[in-house]
Amino acid sequence: MFKLPRLFFMAVLAVTAVACTEKQAPWREMPVRGNAVYYWRTSLQLDSTERGFMADHHVSRIYCRYFDVVLGGADVPMPNATITFGDSLQLPDSTEIVPTVFITENCLRGNEVDSLPRRIVSRILQMNATNGLGDVSEIQIDCDWTERSRETFYALLSDMRQICQQHDIRLSATIRLHQLQMPAPPVDYGVLMLYNTGAPERFEERNPILDLRDVKPYVKYLADYELPLAAAYPVFQWRRVVHGVTIDHEADLQTILDVKKAVEARRPDLTQLILTYHLSTQNINRYTADDYETIYHD
Fold first, then answer.
1. What is the pTM of this model?
2. For residues 53 and 47, is the Cβ–Cβ distance under 8 A?
3. Given this model, what pLDDT does residue 88 score?
């Protein structure tokens, strides 16, 4: 009987061992990369400081809130707080505007939810055409869904993704930390929201905008989360009055960098597309140019 050499078996065992130790990442390749910002105001009109910021930091994408979807009369989801567009955006030709829509969770329990994906996509396409903004290459959906509403929301996303694919449009979604515990939504990629991570009522103990202690319990879910992920970091200030006292919350640079290091250690792809929330002259002036370079690149 013919016998295979002993070295052959040793080679097979070695290859098998390497294959077993090198675990394949469960997520797909990130479809877009670069520096980006959220824009969450009711009129898209950039001043010279904002345009300069985008140029200086090579910001190539604006995730712009187009409108909210809220529960209207007869419990039918309706658009609300639609953005208006200024006469002269003066954006570089390479800048991409990503229409972003916030859907309140109670809409998912309303009537006529099945028609919502088609209505959202049609409205976005019409807004771009009316305002001369060119083709839409991506739509992002923002929703604080829970385990209770997940099935309905994922069905909505699945239908919307099919509609988007007919127009050669990507579909992305925001991902809050608590949503990492659930299966990934049916979209092309997610943006991990690394802000508003804490409970406002515990402000004396922790910063409700961002605190590493609030992020750490969810870091363990990142390595096995089956969706390409970008990361969004807070550069805004939250001012509120508690028992007659004005309190300002904002994330300091070191906290942002500590969180950035913690999440990137588990998900290296979180360095590929980084967003800051949100673009405004006031927020730009809250940090130095070097601070922003550190957030975007270090």
1. 0.91
2. no
3. 66
